[in-house]
Structures are given as structure tokens and as C-alpha cells.
Amino acid sequence: MAPDVIIIGGGLHGCSAALHLARRGATVLVLEKDYVGRHASGVNAGGVRRLGRDLAEIPLSVASMELWHRIGDLVDDDCGFEGHGHLKIAESEAELETLKARVAAVRALGFTHEALVDRRQLRELLPAVADHCTGGIWCEGDGAAQPYRTTLAFRRAAERAGAVVSEGVHVTGLRRENARWQVATADGGAHLAAAVVNCAGAWADRLAAALGEPVPLIPSAFMLMISDRRAPFIKPVVGATSRPLSFKQFANGTVMIGGGYKGALDRETNWTELDFRGLAQSAQTVADLFPVMRSAQIVRAWAGIEARMPDDIPVIGPSSTEAGVFHAFGFSGHGFQLGPISGAIIAELVTTGRTNLPIEPFRITRF
Amino acid sequence: MTDLAHLKDQYDLAVVGAGPAGLAAATLGARFGLTTVLFDEQATPGGQIYRAVTETPLRERALLGEDYWQGAKLADGFIKGSAQYVPGATVWSISHDREIGVSAGGKARLLTARHVILATGALERPFPITGWTLPGVMTCGAAQILLKSSGLGPDGKVVLAGTGPLLWLLAAQYRRAGVRIEAMLETTPRRNWLAALPYLPKFLQSRYAAKGRALLREVKASTRIERGVGAVAARGDGRLREVAYRVGRGREIRLEADALLLHQGVVPNINLASAIGCKHHWDETQLCFTPEIDEWGRSSIPGVSIAGDGGGIAGAEAATESGRLAALDAAWQLGKIDDFARDRHAGPYREALAAALYGRRFLDLLYRPAVRFRHPAGDTLVCRCEEVTAEQVLDAVKGGAVGPNQLKAFLRCGMGPCQGRLCGLTVTELIAKARKVAPDEIGYYRLRPPVKPITVAELASIPQSDAARKAVVRG
To answer: What is the ipTM of this complex?
Structure first.
């Protein structure tokens, strides 16, 4: 039997779309070229934040956060989610002014999740922070989860709901076959479905181009590194204002350091190569903000391949050229938190043709 | 000796490791006019096999054996040559463009080489038995390092267990140093003799036969040896108190012990090669992953060669020759010598290499470690850093962890500071067995630099270029 929907890409967004579609009664086939969670979905920093989102993303991020806080109900696994909050640190009075303006802009839209904290409040939240830091933005209820476990939990929940996940199957093309889509795969397979969802991450531009709607996608390999176990000293996930940083300590004491610096990659071979000058800058930021970390040992570093769009917000919505095709890709280094909601949006679009969430800023025609 | 700050930004040749392969390669590379730098983690040259050869307190030559003192010649030739030597240095990254990340003295820096020779040597194979993490249990290799560098043997009652030439060599060295051994528990499976027998005639003609015979005779005359040992466990509360073992499937025998020294052969140290992306394959005889290299030691990555035991276990003499061949090829690739010169020089090295390899297959087959000491079960620890048991690994495989990289996410297995050195092969073999496929298909941990830990402060000390400072992007 041909499925109703074929999802191309078994990352978090593909698995989430599969889950939500299957719960809506659709038969779903997920085609994944490597294995589920192989790339950024499985190896990202695991930050689950509304803090600092592009203003256009905030409604989606807030809706997704509601799903995160009851993630166990959704996928029958807590995904390692812990809501210890996110903090963005200001390192000078000027940076604090920038953050003030940011909080004002978010509040003007009617959202109250971001709150400004002063020097003293910052130290209450983060006793280990360096003396020069002047304050920050605090976002209570934000947190972190385990990426691979989360992606796998969505996959399993989708499978329990009836979706089929096929790994090691590389999609090579798609074409319209009367009222249906035929998806060709490298193993010579041809799969038919009424609808196709493009969740192909860093490889999604190829499908978009095949549909006649090319996008300026930038394949990116965001780098992360992790330390040995340290005595617990920090609960929230921490970012900085003018330096890229994502910093958090796990329950087992290891500390993850990431945020924005990119390595080199090859989309054909899945090869990523770390840029240690970039990681050195991350290390410098950490050494400056948390002197206690200077002696920490970095035991591993890695990079996951994902798609960045030039405006750093994703493409979510129907194809502009073909009926029955939908996109969800290009999450630009901060798609993990949006995973639960992006799948729900896609499921709504596929089954009802509409969604109540404001996805217009994410249209594929904006480039 | 050179410190990091005084190194150039680029070298013709960078060699990693100062064992026989690395010393030979760096010496010869420099002699052919390549600007050469050699990085080594130890304070003095020699690698593990010739550890501390320039400064060991054990001056009585017979104690460590004449083979050991071969290292002094190699080290001497290297020190007198023009290669720059950076001891106490950890190479933690090499990119496809041969940009090398290295730390020494609390600082780190990046520099490039036109050609890299990895001479990272061997590691002892994991020996996962009940109690192998108890204080008092260590590997024969580690015990031998203590002997070579400090002249020390363990205190109290010493038991050796396992298989392979190093087990016998250590027993002999201990005897000569006056360290008493309570018992040597030999785990070589009896049926290995059947597989090895066809190669016995060649072995008997080889240079290893006489040495081996003498070694066996010496140890047998002085040490209680239990052969055909089929199970070994270390027991104790907080530290080793006794070693329990069975001969074949016989009843359990217990020995009081203060030190249990384990060994079941060595395997190539592939962490750096594999982090660079060099192709590897499973070697079913040596039961390990080995890099794919050609007759010059070239790996699958252009400009990266592998010499010595890191390219496949063949011993110190073979390592020396393979180091020379890799250096010759590097000099040829970089235009310092022509085809004629390369091939003319290579002739004697190849002959010496063939002589060093002659007869080794017998040793490989005879000392192939038993399945029961490679495939732990139940609550025996597999991953020491994250304390993951064999049973947990098998449960995770049932739960969908199809390979070592998925296992990391399930159990954090292999994610500790050792980067899988102590569990990688065990994990691959356990998954392969559970899934009934070949280890080659299961593969190994996907390793990433830093292949050895580096502190935040060291990493932050890497000098930045202006371009890099401007390339900051928002995440």
C-alpha cells in the first residue's frame, strides 16, 4: 500500500512530522539517507530555548515550549528535558542596554518570557560568573534536552502510531505521477504518495531546486565540545550578548560548549572538519566568563551538519510551485526547540491545508 | 629540544611519535633535506618499546635484554640529526590539510606540514574480566613502563595472566630484576596451536625462534605456569585481594594476590589516524581495526602516511624499516629525491622489513586471544570511564543501538576521557556478535579531535589570525 505522505529526512523535524501526521490518521513513510538522528538532530547542543529568538519565531517557539513541558505525554519519554532556564549575559553596560532594548521589543509583541536581570540577580542565578558581567536576560522555563534521545523518542512514537521509517535510503528525485508524487531512491526504489514533506536539512535545497524553487541554503557544521566531569557549578544554559556561546553543565558534571563557530563539511561524504581557531575563541569566551573552567579538560569536539538560511530563520510551509509538497528545513542552528511544533504545523498543513500559527515569515518565496 | 613557541608555522615533514618508526622516519627525512619536526608525548625518545632508553636507571644490559638497547642507537642517530624534537607534546588534531594541533607546556598551537607520518604505535588490547578495574590490577605494558623508567616492580604477590610475547618477556625481565611471580596464568587457547602449526617451519627459521625459545625456557625454569586457563577474575574489596581462575572448564582455583598484570596482545593505536579520516578495515587475524596503507605507508588521505605498529602490529624492527620507507616516500613526494634514488634506497629497507616480518604469522595465530576474554558478559565492565557493563551494551543493541556511535548516545559508552581506547574493540565485537554480522560492518567509534584531552586554557591560547577574528558568526 502506498502511504499518504512521504517524509524525506529522518531528523527531529522529519520524525516529529511523522508522529503528528500518524496521530492524525495519515499513513507515513520516512526515508532517511543515513540513520535517524545522524546529523544535527542527534548531535546538537540540546538547548531548548525561547530566549533570543528572532521575533518572527517567537510564537512558534512559545507554542513548542508548551509541548516540551509535557514532552513525556507526547512521545512517552522525557527526552532528558530539564527546565533550569536560559540566561544571556551582558559583559558591559553597553551590552546591557542592547539587552534592555531586546526585552522591550519582545514585550511589545505581548510576550513576557524574557526578563532583564541586573548585576546582583545575575550572580544569584549564576554564582560562578566572572566579575565584569553586568546583567542579562533570564528566561525561566527554558532548558535543555538530549538530542539523540529526543529524535529517537519521536521516531519511536511515530512508529508506534503506525509510521514506517526506512534508513539508509537516499532519495534521488521526485516527480508527479498523475495525482500522486513518485519519490525515486538510490536503491532503485520508487515510492508513491499523495504528499511529500521536505525535512532534508542540509540537503533540502536539492529537492527545492528540483521543484523549481531554489533556495540559498548554506550547509553548516556548527561545532561543539564537551569537558570532563566538573563539580556542579551552574544550572541554567548560558549565552553571551556579542560573543557566540552556548554553555551548559549536564547532570553528570560534563560541560558542553558551543555556539556559532563552524567547521568545514562535505555533504557528499558526511565529513566534518573542526576549525580549532573557532573553538579556541569559544574556549576564550568560556575562560573569560567562567574562570573556574580554565582548567577543565576538553575531551571531545564535533560538528553536526545542518542547514542555515541567509536570514537565520527556517523555511516552513507549502511549496510555492507544486501542490502536495511541504517544506520544513533551514533551522539555522536553533531548530531543536522548534522540533515538536514544526511537526505539528506540517501535519496541520498536510491534512487541513492551514495552521493557526503565523508561518508567513518562513515562506520559501522570500529569497 | 624545541618548545612550541619556537616552532615554524610550516614544516616539510611532521612525525608523530618517537618510537622506532617515528625516530627512523624523522632521522631519515631530515637527512634528505626535509625540514622535519617530531612530536612525542614522552619526555625522552624511545616510544613504549624503547621507553626511557636514554635514561633508564637499569644499566645492567641483560636485564631488559639486547633488543631493548637497539633503541639507544636509533635515539642517538635521531638526536644527532637535524630534525626538531618536541618532547612532552600531545598532538590532538590533524586536519585533511595537515594542520596540526599540538599542546606542550600548557600551551597549544596550530602549524602545518606538507607531509605527516603517524608513528603512534600500539595499545594493549582491552582485557575485560570481572574486577579488571580494581586497584592492583594493571596491564603488563604499564608494569613494564614502571620497570623501564623507574626500575620498579609491584609490591607483594604478583600474578601475570593472558597471552602473547610481552607476557613472557615481562616474566623474564621480572625474574632478572628479582621480582617474584606467584604464577603466570596462560590463556592461549589450545586450539590456536592447530591454526598456527602450518606456519611453525617458517617461524623456526626466523629471528624470533631462538629468542622465543630462550625466553620460554628462562620463564618456565623459574615460574609456576598454568596453561590452558579458561577463566580469570580479580576479586577484592576496594583493592585486589585474590585472583580466581579455572584451567579449561575445571574447578575454580584461588590465589592470594596484590598485583594482577594482564595482557592479551597489542593493537594499532588508530585514534589519530581515524580522527583524520584515514580508511580502516577489520583484521580478522589480529582482531583489530588497521589502517589501509600501501607499501610506502601511505594512508587513504593524501600527505598522511602511517609507519610502525600503528599501521598493523609487526614489532619494533619492522617499525624501524617502515618508518624509513615512509620518510623516503615523503622525500620523493616533496621533490627532494627522484624515483631512482627512492627505489635504490628502498631496496635494503624492504629486505630488512621482509626479514623482520618473516615468521610473524605464527605468532599472530598462536597468540590470537580467546573469544571468552574478548566478549565479556553480565556485569563485567566494558567502558571503564562511564562504567557501562557488557549486559547494558547487549540490552542497548536490542533496543536499537546498531553500532558504536549509537551506543554512545544510549549509554555514553566510549565518551569518557579515554575516547574509547579501553572499550572500542570490545564494543565492536560485542555488537557484531549480537547482530551476527562482521566487525567490519559494525565499524568503530567515529573519533573526533581532540584525540587527547586539552584544557580550556590551552585551547584558548591558540593564536588567532585577523581573518578568524572577523569570521565570527551568530549562532
So the answer is: 0.90
